[in-house]
Structures are given as structure tokens and as C-alpha cells.
Design brief:
By secondary structure, the chain is of the alpha/beta class. It has four domains: about 190 residues, Dna Ligase, domain 1; about 150 residues, 2-Layer Sandwich (D-amino Acid Aminotransferase, Chain A, domain 1), CATH 3.30.470.20; about 130 residues, 3-Layer(bba) Sandwich (Glucose Oxidase, domain 1), CATH 3.50.30; about 325 residues, Phosphoenolpyruvate-binding domains (TIM Barrel), CATH 3.20.20. It is about 35% helix and about 20% strand. The protein has 29 helices and 30 strands. The strands form six sheets. The protein has an eight-stranded parallel barrel with strand order 23-24-25-26-27-28-29-30, surrounded by six helices. α3 packs antiparallel against α4. It is elongated. About 0% of the residues have low confidence.
């Protein structure tokens, strides 16, 4: 039988009860009562209603004193704000000491003990009646307390929660958002603690927090209780799961990143309810949860997202907290709220930041946002330092606190030693539109106040802090009135870290995904060194390879996983649009620069015309490395379910060479036509054009590589300064080559596109190719809109000329 009065149990709470128990607790009740039947575990608990807060203040006669105290408060006068806020909290804390309230809290706690056992630990969380609204999204305005045991300590925690309605940051927040201090009340949620101190916890977003891309679930996690992640005190592990293929039944983690997880929060001793301990080195080197846990969390998050769908049935992007219980091994959802930052970005314009020049890198970390900003450093190690902060400075701190929000709003950029992309600094910076680099590890110990720096988050997943004020540019292009041409406009892309953002621009897919970029940037080791590590000569290289591949059964598994995650991320970003990935096209001198590469590569006088492309794949010197490339691509298609991936063979000199590579691919599980697999060829050697009818019998399509085709047609090395002026794709001979390639492919009913930058650099080339009827033009992301306009205009000219001719 439920306790009457101020206590309301989760099973009796729904979303519409926000006025009674606040947004946070209303969401908990909704999760507990509505989603348990769908396998979403939520610990039981109860709420002290907002009426308990209001009635306590009325019975104590505290309203007039509070109104007088807060009359005319000016958030800009930080010391005065702090004094008034402390006095207000003392008033509320004293007023909440009501006997009837204490009795109900004790009885409710005893009921939880009967369900979970004596002296059960509970989490005590504040839930304001105006919290978690679409226009009010800052987290952490009010206090929460963990590992509270016994009726006496629980009542004290509840009183402190009520009092936290008047923290400095909460008062400032209400002023900014136009909330009346006395029309906002506070409820308290009391929930059975999940023993994540013995396991792990974290946060899930049902979209990518940086780009707003909605087709992924983003899971973060670290050992211990979850406060460290929310506060940005640790660099968590990160995982992505692709929604569309997950819904189709494929169970695979799209990508993963190992975080530092420097410390873990566990239960405390004596008066301290929690404490932090260092994470052992062995635990830091492995993920805090396994793939099965990640996939189960993704499933729960999708259930939550769908439950919160709008009236039209469109899923609502969600911010979900989770915890794993180290005692029973089960996963629990302990909070969910609508995500209100990335999901609300306006898509009317594409905004692109780019450095005009680079400089000395003084720190790196996780990039938050995609902007660039410059300013002087202001070190903040405690709240006293905030008084010296000036608008436009770069806030540098070990980690940020919710109390710092007024200062963060006027910072040019934010840099922290600790934290991942879901820490407090990242959440607030994202909402404010301020670039942030988090998790630099030690920047505060290296930098001094007043030093000018440039903070760049426009170079992918890694954020850079450069010494000095570097020049940068911002390009804003409206997309709302963009008319799409009939010719497919695709993108060239090699960096998986830019895939989600790039995929949100108007394009027809990826015409060229460069595998070598992923190998170079995300693996860094020569494929043969991982396929045959016993042949690595350097002891230092052997040690490094052993360290990097320690958590894998064999070194080659490292290559397959890393490459498949990079390629898979690009394929997932554009799914179901086609993504054409080019097999590795390093030249021998480039391969040699990879770790242990010199042990496996010959020295060539002219690598451009040497052991590269298709020649490598069926050759004994690289056959084992090629097998790893195929294994990675097979994993993307068969395990991840990303069948929009097409494979392209580069620098294929002869028909016999083509047949050998296609046969080798089939032996490695990549058989043309099986599962809809299409295999393309780079058309970049004059022989490809001359024999296009014969090559068309072996391949499903062609992509013209205008750079190499121009060099080999004109006999010009474009990298040689003395003759580079002769390199010109617009040469009459080249135009004839392009004409033969396009018409030849179309004659054989094969897809034909171009992936060089000529159409973007020279509008007349785009018009020429459009006139030939080329199927697709693939350019760098920054050239998409400009090329689309040129092609659309060229199509209109072609249509008009055809009409006149008829």
C-alpha cells in the first residue's frame, strides 16, 4: 500500500507529472512504469513531490525572507550573488526540517529496504519543475548525492537537495532563461543505487553530439559511479552503433575509442559517501564494457528514443544515463531526457571553419564543435580565479564546474586537462557554440596566463591548440534553396572523423573513400608487419606493435578492426547512399614511411610507375596484406551490414592483372555480384581508356582519376616544379581521353564518374563532363555546393541546346 502525502512511487509517475515531481523524476517514472516490459531495467524508487518543498517553506514562514534576500540580485556581481545564494540555501535547509516529511521519508526508505535488503544505498537527485524543458537544457544546476544509507542521512540529503534550488549557478540560470525564482519548485528523486562502483557507468546519446547526425547511438563509459563522466573528471571509452543496420538485425559495434579512465568513483568510508581511486594500468588499457553490453545499451536507448517519439512518430533524440551493476552483472537505465543541443541545430546553412595556416601545436585532445577561435589564456584552477576572467579569453582548466557557466558563456574557447565528449565542459560548450578541446591531460601545467593561442576543432575528431593567433576563415553557404542537378554530385573522403558532418551536406554518396588515409592515420603500421610480425627487424618496432595489439588475439586482428571501423564509419554516415572505397593506393616510398614499412618495401627510382595498386594485390610480396584489406571490407559488408559499400581497384594496368585481383578478392570472400557487391576500377591509365570495352566485362563501373590520367597522358610529373606547369587536365588530348572514357563506359552500360578535383577547380571541366553525360562527379566536401551549381547550370544549357536541335 502506497504511503499518502508527499511520497509518490516510480510506478505511479508518468511524464505528465512534471508539475508534481519535475522533469527528471517524471522521466524516471515513465521509464520504470512503461518500459520495464520491453527489457529496459530501471531501479525502483520514489519521489518527494514539489508540494513538499512548497509546504515546508510555507510552514516555516520562509517566503518573505527569501523574496527580500533575492530582490534585485545581479548575477554579474559574483561575490554578492554568492553571499545571497548561501543565505537562501540556509533558509531552505532549515525550513525543510519538518516532522511529517521526515516520517514519510523514513517509511518510504523502509519499504525500499524490504524490496532490496537492509541499509540499502540510494541515490538522491534534485528534480526542478522547470528542469529538462526544451528551452532549458543545462545539466547540473542542482545537487545530487550518492550512496546515502539510513533514514537520517537520507532526510539530510533531501533537505540539501531542496536548498540547492538556490545555488549560484541555479540562480544565474533562472535569470538567463527568464524563470521566476519562486515559480520554480523542487522535487527529490530517491532511487536504489546500482553498484556501478564495482563495474562501470556512462551516458548514451541517440545521435552524434558533434554533428547532430541521427543515425548512430553514441555510448560513453568509464569505471565506477557516473559522476566523473558528467563532471568531466575522466576521459571515457566511446562507442558508436549504427541504427539502421542494428534495426535490420546486424549486431556490431561500428567503432570504438579507448579512453584514459584515469580514476574511478567508488563508495566512500565513514562520513564520505563516495571517493575516487586511481584506475589500475591494466584496467585503463581495456574497455570498461564489452561489445555485448554496448549493443544492449544501444537497444535500450532505441527503445527509449522510440517511446519518446513525437505525434508524427518521429523518434526524439535522447540523452540517457546508464549503469552496470557489478553484483548482478546487469545493465540499468537511470535517467533519460530529450537531447536539446545537437538535435536543434538549424540546417539552413553550412558553416565551415578552416585555418589559413598552421603553427606549433601546444596541446591536443577531443574536439568539441567544429569551430576555431583565438584568444589569450586564462588559467582557472578554482572559483577565485573566475573573478579575473575577461570576455574573449580562452578558459583553461583541469575540468569545469557547473558554477562556472556565467564565465563559460563569454569565453572564446575552452580547454581542459580531463574529460570526454560528454563531460560538463563539452555539454556546455556545445550548447553555447564555443569550441572546446577536452582531455589534453596536462595543458594547465604547460601554459601561462596571457599566452595567445588558437583553438581549432575544425580538423576532425582531434582538437588542436596552436601557439599564437593564427588566421582562419569562415564560410557560410545557404542550402535551403539549392536545386539538385541530375548528375550525381558525390564527395571524396578519407577521414572517418569528418564523415558524419560531411554526410549531412547535400550529396549523392562517396565517389572516393581513400583507404590509405585510414591506414596512415588510424593504424600507422605497415599491413605486412601485422600479417607477418616475425619479419619486423627493429626491436623498438616490435615492442610498439606488441603494445598496440595487446588486446587482440593476433596482430592482424588489430588491422582488420581498425580499418573496418574507419571504412565502416564512412559507409554508415552515408547509408544507404553508395560509398566507393578504393583499395590501398600507397606507393612504395609512402608504404615505407609506415611503422616497419622499410622491412617490406623495395626501393624504386620512380614509385609513381612502380609497385603500386593492382600490381601489389595478387603479388606474393603483399598477398598477406591484401588478405587483411579484404577481411576488413568483408567485415564492413557482412558483419556490419553496410552493403552500400562498393570496392574500387586502383592503378590496374592490364586485363590479366584485373582478373587476378578479382579472383583473389573472391577467394577472400569478396565475390563480385554476391550480396550485391559491385567492383569498380579506377580509370587512370591510358590503357584503361583504350581497352575500356574489355575492362567493362570485368567491372561494374569506372571512376576516372584525372590526376594520374593527366600525368600519364601528357607524360608530366605534376610534383616536379620544373615541368608542373605542363600539367593541365584541359589539354585537348586529355579532353579526348575523357570523352573516350565516358562514352566507352556508357556504351557498355557501366557507371562512370570522376573523382579528381578538375571539375571543382575548373568550371569549364564540369560543364564539359556534364555535356558528355557523365554519371557522377566526386569532389572534396568544400566544393559540393559550388560544383552542384555549375553542373546544374550546364545541364540547363544542354537541355536548351537539345530542344533547339530538335
Amino acid at each position: 500500500m502506497d504511503i499518502p502525502g508527499y511520497v509518490r512511487w516510480f510506478e505511479d509517475i508518468r511524464l505528465e507529472d512534471v508539475p508534481l515531481v519535475g522533469g527528471k523524476t517524471a522521466s524516471l517514472g515513465e521509464l520504470y512504469s512503461a518500459l520495464s516490459s520491453q527489457g529496459v531495467r530501471v531501479p525502483n524508487g520514489f519521489a518527494l513531490t514539489a508540494s513538499a518543498y512548497r509546504d515546508a517553506l510555507t510552514q516555516a514562514g520562509a517566503w518573505d525572507e527569501l523574496r527580500s534576500l533575492l530582490a534585485g540580485v545581479d548575477k554579474r556581481r559574483i561575490s554578492d550573488l554568492a553571499r545571497r545564494a548561501a543565505a537562501a540555501r540556509a533558509i531552505v535547509y532549515a525550513a525543510a526540517d519538518q516532522e511529517d516529511l521526515r516520517r514519510e521519508v523514513t517509511e518510504a526508505y523502509r519499504k525500499l529496504e524490504r524490496e532490496y535488503g537492509g541499509n540499502v544505498a540510494v541515490g538522491v537527485r534534485s528534480s526542478a519543475t522547470a528542469e529538462d524543458l526544451p528551452t532549458a537544457s543545462f545539466a547540473g544546476q542542482h545537487e545530487s548525492f550518492l550512496n546515502i544509507r539510513g533514514p537520517h542521512d537520507l532526510m539530510d540529503a533531501c533537505r540539501r537537495c531542496f536548498a540547492s534550488l538556490f545555488t549560484d549557478r541555479a540562480i544565474s540560470y533562472r535569470i538567463d532563461n527568464g524563470f521566476d525564482h519562486f515559480k520554480v519548485a523542487l522535487s527529490v528523486a530517491v532511487m536504489k543505487m546500482v553498484r556501478s562502483d564495482l563495474a562501470a557507468s556512462g551516458v548514451i546519446f541517440t545521435l552524434d553530439t558533434e554533428s547532430g547526425f541521427r543515425d548512430v547511438v553514441f555510448v560513453t563509459g568509464a569505471y565506477g559511479l557516473g559522476e566523473n563522466i558528467v563532471q568531466g573528471a575522466v576521459d571515457p571509452d566511446e562507442f558508436y552503433v549504427h541504427k539502421p543496420t542494428f534495426i535490420k538485425g546486424f549486431r556490431s559495434v561500428l567503432s570504438r575509442r579507448l579512453g584514459g579512465k584515469e580514476k574511478r568513483m567508488i563508495y566512500g568510508r565513514g562520513h564520505a559517501t563516495t571517493r575516487n581511486v586511481k584506475t589500475p594500468p591494466a584496467d585503463r588499457k581495456r574497455f570498461c564494457i564489452g561489445d555485448n553490453d554496448v549493443l544492449e545499451l544501444a537497444r535500450c536507448a532505441l527503445v527509449v528514443e522510440m517511446h519518446y517519439s513525437d505525434k508524427a512518430g518521429t523518434p526524439t533524440p535522447m540523452d540517457v544515463e546508464w549503469a552496470k551493476d557489478g553484483s548482478d552483472g546487469k545493465l540499468y537505465i537511470i535517467q533519460a531526457r530529450p537531447e536539446t543541443v545537437a538535435s536543434r541545430r538549424k540546417p539552413e546553412a553550412l558553416e565551415s571553419y578552416a585555418l589559413k595556416s598552421t603553427g606549433k601545436v601546444v596541446a591536443t585532445g577531443r574536439a568539441v564543435g567544429e569551430k576555431i577561435a583565438a584568444g589569450k589564456v586564462r588559467l582557472i584552477t578554482n572559483e577565485r580565479d573566475l573573478r579575473a576572467f575577461k570576455p574573449g579569453e580562452v578558459l583553461v582548466a583541469p575540468a569545469t564546474s557547473p558554477d562556472w557557466e556565467p564565465v563559460m558563456k563569454v569565453a572564446a574557447a575552452i580547454v581542459t586537462d580531463h574529460g570526454g565528449r560528454t563531460c560538463h565542459a563539452a555539454i556546455v560548450a556545445r550548447e553555447l557554440g564555443v569550441p572546446a578541446v577536452v582531455g589534453t591531460e596536462s595543458f594547465t601545467r604547460k601554459v601561462t596566463n596571457g599566452r595567445p593561442v588558437t583553438v581549432s576543432c575544425a580538423e576532425g575528431d582531434i582538437g588542436h591548440v596552436y601557439d599564437g593567433n593564427l588566421p582562419f576563415e569562415v564560410e557560410r553557404i545557404a542550402t535551403d534553396s539549392l536545386a539538385k542537378p541530375r548528375t550525381e554530385i558525390m564527395v571524396n573522403l578519407g577521414n572517418p572523423e569528418l564523415a558524419f558532418k560531411t554526410a549531412m551536406a547535400p550529396s549523392d554518396g562517396v565517389g572516393l573513400a581513400r583507404m590509405e588515409f585510414i591506414i596512415n592515420q588510424h593504424i600507422g603500421i605497415h599491413p605486412m608487419a601485422l600479417a607477418q610480425p616475425e619479419k619486423v627487424k627493429s626491436a623498438r618496432d616490435r615492442r610498439t606493435i606488441k603494445l598496440l595489439t595487446a588486446r587482440y588475439k593476433k596482430p592482424s586482428d588489430y588491422f582488420v578492426e581498425r580499418l573496418s571501423e574507419g571504412v565502416g564509419t564512412i559507409a554508415a554516415a552515408f547509408y544507404p547512399r553508395p560509398v566507393i572505397v578504393r583499395l590501398s593506393d600507397f606507393k612504395t616510398n609512402e608504404y615505407a614511411k609506415l611503422m616497419a614499412g622499410a622491412d617490406f618495401e623495395p626501393e624504386e627510382e620512380n614509385p609513381m610507375l612502380g609497385f603500386r595498386g593492382a600490381a601489389r594485390y595478387a603479388h606474393p610480396a603483399y598477398a598477406a596484406g591484401f588478405a587483411l584489406e579484404c577481411a576488413a571490407l568483408r567485415r564492413v559488408r557482412d558483419v556490419m551490414g553496410l552493403t552500400n559499400l562498393k570496392i574500387m581497384i586502383p592503378f590496374c594496368r592490364r586485363l590479366e592483372e584485373a582478373r587476378k585481383v578479382i579472383e583473389a578478392m573472391a577467394q577472400h570472400g569478396l565475390k563480385r555480384g554476391e550480396g550485391g557487391l559491385e567492383i569498380f576500377m579506377m580509370c587512370e591509365i591510358p590503357n584503361n581508356v583504350i581497352l575500356i570495352d574489355q575492362f567493362a566485362k570485368l567491372f561494374d563501373g569506372f571512376s576516372i582519376g584525372s590526376n594520374d590520367l593527366t600525368q600519364l597522358t601528357l607524360g608530366v610529373d605534376r610534383d616536379s616544379d620544373i615541368v608542373a606547369f605542363d600539367f593541365d587536365e584541359r589539354d585537348p588530348g586529355m579532353l579526348q581521353m575523357l570523352t573516350m572514357a565516358v562514352t566507352g563506359a556508357k556504351r557498355n552500360r557501366r557507371h562512370v564518374g570522376i573523382c579528381g578535383e578538375a571539375p571543382a577547380n575548373y568550371p569549364e571541366m564540369a560543364r564539359f563532363l556534364t555535356g558528355l553525360g557523365i554519371d557522377s562527379i566526386s569532389v572534396n566536401p568544400s566544393s559540393i555546393l559550388r560544383t552542384s551549381e555549375i553542373v546544374r547550370e550546364a545541364e540547363q544549357v544542354t537541355i536548351k541546346s537539345q530542344a533547339v536541335g530538335s
